[in-house]
Design brief:
heterotetramer, A: alpha/beta, 2 domains, C: 334 residues, alpha/beta, Rossmann fold, six-stranded parallel sheet, binds thiamine diphosphate, binds magnesium ion, DH_E1 (chains C, D), pyruvate dehydrogenase (acetyl-transferring) activity (chains C, D), PDH_E1_Alpha_Subunit (chains C, D)
Chain lengths: 321, 321, 334, 334
Amino acid sequence: MTREITYVQAVAEAIDEELARDDDVILFGEDVEEFGGNFGETEGLYQKHGRDRVRNTPLSEIGIAGMALGAAVGGIRPVAELQFADFAATAGDEVFNQIPKQPYVSGGKLKAPLTIFAPSGAGIGAGAQHSQSVHSWLGNVPGWVVVTATTPYDAKGLFKSAIRDDNPVFFLPHKMLSETKGEVPEEEYTLALGEAAVEEEGDDVTVVATQLMFHRAREATADLDIDVEIINPRTFAPLDTETIAESVRKTGRLVVVDETVERYGTQGHIANEIVENDFFSLDAPPKTIGVKNVPIPLSPPLEQEVLPSADRIAAGIESLF
Amino acid sequence: MTREITYVQAVAEAIDEELARDDDVILFGEDVEEFGGNFGETEGLYQKHGRDRVRNTPLSEIGIAGMALGAAVGGIRPVAELQFADFAATAGDEVFNQIPKQPYVSGGKLKAPLTIFAPSGAGIGAGAQHSQSVHSWLGNVPGWVVVTATTPYDAKGLFKSAIRDDNPVFFLPHKMLSETKGEVPEEEYTLALGEAAVEEEGDDVTVVATQLMFHRAREATADLDIDVEIINPRTFAPLDTETIAESVRKTGRLVVVDETVERYGTQGHIANEIVENDFFSLDAPPKTIGVKNVPIPLSPPLEQEVLPSADRIAAGIESLF
Amino acid sequence: MTQNVSVDDETARQFLEGMLRIDIFEEETKERFGEGEIPGFVHLSGGHEGSHIGMGAAMGDDDWLAVGGARLIGQYIAKGVPLPDIMAELYGRVGGSNKGHGGQMHVSDIGRKLYGHAATIGSGQNPAVGLALAEEIQETDNVAVTTIGDGGTSRGSFHTALVFAAYWDLPVVFVIENNEWAISTPAESLSPDHLSDYGIPHKMATESIDGSDVEAVYHTVSEAIERARNGGGPTVIESRVARLVPHFEGDKETYRDTDEYERLKEEKDPIENYRERLLERDIVTETGIEDMIANIETEVKEAVEFARESPEPEPEAAYDHVYRTPLYGQGENQ
Amino acid sequence: MTQNVSVDDETARQFLEGMLRIDIFEEETKERFGEGEIPGFVHLSGGHEGSHIGMGAAMGDDDWLAVGGARLIGQYIAKGVPLPDIMAELYGRVGGSNKGHGGQMHVSDIGRKLYGHAATIGSGQNPAVGLALAEEIQETDNVAVTTIGDGGTSRGSFHTALVFAAYWDLPVVFVIENNEWAISTPAESLSPDHLSDYGIPHKMATESIDGSDVEAVYHTVSEAIERARNGGGPTVIESRVARLVPHFEGDKETYRDTDEYERLKEEKDPIENYRERLLERDIVTETGIEDMIANIETEVKEAVEFARESPEPEPEAAYDHVYRTPLYGQGENQ
Ligand SMILES: Cc1ncc(C[n+]2csc(CCOP(=O)(O)OP(=O)(O)O)c2C)c(N)n1
Ligand SMILES: Cc1ncc(C[n+]2csc(CCOP(=O)(O)OP(=O)(O)O)c2C)c(N)n1
Ligand SMILES: [Mg+2]
Ligand SMILES: [Mg+2]
């Protein structure tokens, strides 16, 4: 049995269920109480679980991330929101230098089972500092489990697993997908972290895409006379390269489309993993597509220009044949 | 005419000469006065140029980077030090969200001719938060000119250009190279930003390497019976892919070795640029070498394990034949 | 309770006119946003007009304003950015102050010494310290004024800016617009009696004033600027205002108490209060105000027309302004 | 000028012994580092011993210590981490507290509630707030004590931690070890009279004490902990000490005035002063002290032996502890 919910509802349900399931889980962040988050992602949680479990914080990402780290080490499972993924940098020392490294430098003796989540991605005219896709930054810092969500099904199942996982997890919903709808099981479920999903099977080309780009890739392939296999990596660190490689061994062609900036983004690395380790499975060089090396501009025609479009993806796929 | 100086002397000379040349240039950072920097990189400058031009700051990277941004917009050419490259994240909002983006979001009307420099890299047992190579983070954020230095010649010539450039430049010397020596011209010189240097010519394989990895690559190739062309990218953003591509068109083989973490590091992107745009120039898949996906551990055997060694580079090169 | 008018009549009228300009411009902005003509987020300044205009009037043309908080449009206007430049930027058009690259949160006008927001709350204060340093090095007597909201004062970046400004005794005036809310989080929950108290440990001059009174703001900021100009160092001012509008357009404000909200609208509307004050003292007449409004409405209408007629940027313009090229030495023969 | 001894004789002797343990351990560390046996950086605690031991003695075993500043080894010892665990970690060996992954800047011992430094100065205060929150949620009465240097207080992260601790009135004790220097930058240039004044706007309890007096530290931190334990909220303490050692081994300290340095060594050595105080009051005898020293020297020797004999990590150990695997759900059939 399934039912249809929106993507932000899925996010909220994941937190709701984990708050109900485990007393050690708490939620905090800016405006997570009555306001319910900028996209409705924490709506209703405060009313249900009360102010001890769901807490507005003062306006400081350093405070939020640093407190999450301490609380996690102290035996709690904090779920902490940053209002925009860009603010990973606003709590830069915590996010790059402290949280992912403290378990390692302790020789594994310290555990930091926290989850930070933050809406990422472009498309709503939010400008250069509220529109970035930061999984390239985070995935380049060993220690973070970096998880994205593409559908309500993903959002709920992956977020619940993120909260239960004993590693620091950075969970990245995409703000443009907030109101998209999808099926989720009636019953409780979780989805495995660290495993890519083959979302559509096909024989001709493997397209790796997540979040908004997954939907654009699907749109792009709808009209193509090419049998496309679409892989949603879900977790960007660690990366499940094996599922991608297996697919390319079948299709012989690879397109990687992602919303991170292309230079030292996710695309080149993913493509290179296949080239380097599965070279002879390739019938053509891979094609990578991302945000060209510019910040995200405000004006819609500019923003749409830099955000990979279905057309650009379609052209990328076709260029391999 | 040339003379031999050390790498940190080259850094100090670059600042010294630019302070002397241009009244708008000032230097600030933690312990840049009498102390002269952790590696001696600002030694003697305070005595010579005085406290108006060379200023110790309070201990805050946010303060340093934010003040540099404002001063640059206000018409000064600040040269600001962060004591370790890892602290790019400690001033995360300034480094990721503000400095590189403010010129862009202003529609080009605002100019931020600042230089931040920070010793990067591993090898001295400084641990996980004092040893990172961060040009993958910075290069993934459009707007920064990201420059590294491999020799005293580079250090001086590139740093001087960085200071003169009208963009925000992040200049990354490598701490392990501090005491290495090299020739620099007697006379004044600068080196072009944004241009890779062919450091050694060869016909069999192109090795892209910078900073400490350049020296290890050279060590690696000394005993190999392979004619290696070594390219030092110098600037990682924007990246001079053309010089690399030209070389690979000649050699047919590519090894990219860099000290950034491999996952979403520089290596995969650089290799992919060639694969995607110059596929048919390749006789073998490229080989990428970097820090495996771990933080830099303290203990020397662990640190040496994660830092690409000459042996690992040699093996990488040989694997292509 | 009648209040004195402490400025000359002409200045008083300018204050009223300035506040009305913000209000009318923003009402129009709200409409245009509602009609889908303006992309992105829109945050309005209702309740802050007195603080903005008082501050702007206290500043010299050559003093920097590094804007902060989320009530930005009023500050742009107070610093003298032409309305068409602002409106076209809200529209994301090439005629905008930032050619559409920035939008509502980022209007900047370096010629008028408006340093634009980086849109992360609390991002303007350290740059303001740098701007003040640049002025000092260039041996001017210009100062840097920087604004931040009550919410923003919780960020460490604000406190570090205080440390740096105090360290070199730089000419910076920190204005905290305390409107009691950071989106939905009440400033009341923060510990300080006054947010300007954050200046106390640094031994800075501090003031907490009724920021809905344009004249109070004008005098207090003027004094602080004067002090900074004369080498007296930084000041922290808390300008207490009411946020008489949603956080952003679309915010349902379920977190606010309706009665209290109504009371604030009654009591803390800087424009309404000042209007009455000037009318009572015959500094303006009803018709005088109507004329003002009519003129401003024309200005605003022209700004909208300008914005509408200004072309959308060409898509390729997205690739402009990332770097100033060529980079130093690039392309030269060495 | 004789000073009273305000603790019982046994406690007093433990204080002296504790400080001597730090001193002797560190003297040995310096030697071993000089001989090239210890990799990386070494920062010693000379002058801070009283602050460390007084603080450690005030804490319960179940209170968290989130260490900060650069004078760390003394704090590890004060929190009761066994000397061999520390020394082996300095050596980067598998027997070290962190299996050699961390080194001198990172000793952590979660069992003993020592939260290790992330080596960026000022990185411990927000985690300390989180640790206090965790204790509160778990309904214990444990508190979190966190240390930072004078230099570190300039970072915004420190101030944000004050905001958060005050916001929920959490049981956090902030101890600022003001040793007058951040590497080469004098604390004197900072504006506050006392760095504990940073607590004032937050209406926190604040204290500034002579941190070279172990008993003063003990009493002040005890009171603050007591207050926090009883729901009285956070305290900020400035513990004024002298840095009687270089910033790190190798620092030539050209920036210090020699006479002043000598004076400080004369006047502000917490061990020498306390030794004399206890001798004067016959709480210890010279031979008693000699015995103490001899015992500690044996302990330290054993720690060095342990460290030397502890194996170097296998290179592959570098890949351990990045993640706890399997990740949630990984490898399962869904
Ligand atoms: C660093 C950062 N955190 C969070 C946000 C999201 N945000 C935008 S405005 C705002 C509230 C700001 O409150 P305040 O500083 O009081 O300014 P006001 O909106 O009241 O003018 C928040 C949380 C942001 N833009 N930047
Ligand atoms: C964020 C950060 N900036 C700079 C450094 C480099 N650094 C290490 S110790 C130190 C000085 C610290 O001074 P203080 O806080 O007074 O502590 P003390 O050394 O006096 O114990 C500096 C600048 C660092 N480790 N972290
Ligand atoms: Mg506010
Ligand atoms: Mg100090």
